[in-house]
Task: structure prediction
Amino acid sequence: MTARFLVLVAIVTALLACAPLVLSGYYLNVCYITILYVGLAYGWNVISGYAGYFSFGQVAFFGSGAYVMGLLVLNLHWNWLAATVAGGLAGVVIAIPAGYVMLRLRGPFFSLGMFGLAQTAKVLFSASDKTGGGAGLYLPPGSDLKPVYWWTLAVALAAFITTAWLDRSAFGLRLRAMREDERVAGTLGVDVTRAKTVAFAISALIPALLGGGYAWFLTTVDPEAVFSPRLDLQAIVMAIFGGIGTLWGPLVGAVFMTQISEALWARFPQAYLMIFGGLLVALLIFMPRGLVPAIAAHFGKRDAGGGPLSTTTPSPHEQERGSRLPESVA
Result:
């Protein structure tokens, strides 16, 4: 990362951190939801964009983190932030054995398996009286959005930094090699099982950390809300629209699409979903690889992450590096 890049990130983060001091009500809510989806899109991008495992079930960890936070706050009287961190760690604990099983599947079987995992988690959490059953958990009222906003911003920033590291690290190179051809990556010395399990754990940690803050803001852990497939679908669409497997794609996609959705909803409350869907289809027809790769290709530059476009075929230099995987990065 260049010094100019780091300064730019620091300035933008500082400006966003000041938003709760000057905004309130609807506008602060829009900023919070936008940053929430930025974080969710980056979490999904790790396992699906870099490792090539298209997931429809990351909301399983979002909901699990929310429930763990709620149970710790209500039963052990933990501070909501400490409980939210514990919920994130719980998401990783769940992801490691789940990933060991689920990552044996590929393609649509993995996608459907993850969707089933999310629905199973929803049923398990809503079936027990200790977790409030179908009604969920009711948290102490009067929560303030400001600390939740700052927490969500911190998690989204950490997700961005993690993606920037993946874009340049040997581990990220291993994930991209697996995405192109997992068997070939294995023959080149990549520990495929370990690499994809770590990627799966990272992609679970991010939504699990976000889920606790989201539930605290709502003052309730509603199974229908925290395990909603809509959360997954919107994060996926945003990442795809921006450009999966890229550094800036999830950020651009989440910001762009959240603002368009809000503007359409304000003007056309009865038909905004139809208009939004049609606009999305049209954009993806003209930019099938996403907005960020399309802009980079148009200007004939490297992507904003500083390396070759992650969605393109590896360059000869990358292939040469890949041939030395057993010695250099394996």
Observations:
- Residues 3-231 form one domain.
